[in-house]
Write a structure and sequence with these properties.
By secondary structure, the protein is mostly helical. Helix content is 90%, strand content 0%. It has helices at 3-50, 55-101. It is rod-shaped. Keywords: Membrane, Transmembrane, Transmembrane helix. The chain crosses the membrane at residues 12-29.
């Protein structure tokens, strides 16, 4: 190999191969940064998913809420019954009050 051929070969390496190699190294570094960012996001997502209730827990919660709804209906019925008792007591007290205000007549 003569000096002229070696010179041409080195220029081709300098003009073509080195820029391509630099581009590939930059691309590799960028890909590594992107993978690290995705790994960080995945770690955060996994940490959030650890706190998500399971299907069984959600089912138990739904049953508990349904039970509370039934208990609430019972409580409302009892309160309505107490309201009717209070209405009757108010009528009785009003009659006694009227009787006493009218001098027992």
């Amino acid at each position: 190999m003569d000096l002229h051929t070696l010179d041409i070969l080195l220029r081709i390496i300098q003009v073509v191969v080195l820029p391509m190699l630099a581009f590939l190294v930059k691309l590799l570094i960028d890909q590594r940064r992107q993978v690290n960012g995705l790994a960080s996001r995945l770690t955060k997502a996994e940490a959030c998913l650890e706190n998500v209730p399971t299907e069984k827990t959600l089912h138990e919660l739904a049953l508990t809420i349904r039970g509370l709804g039934g208990d609430l209906h019972v409580a409302v019925e009892k309160i309505e019954g107490m309201g009717r008792i209070v209405d009757r007591l108010e009528r009785v007290v009003s009659r006694h009050e009227e009787h006493l205000l009218n001098g027992g007549k």
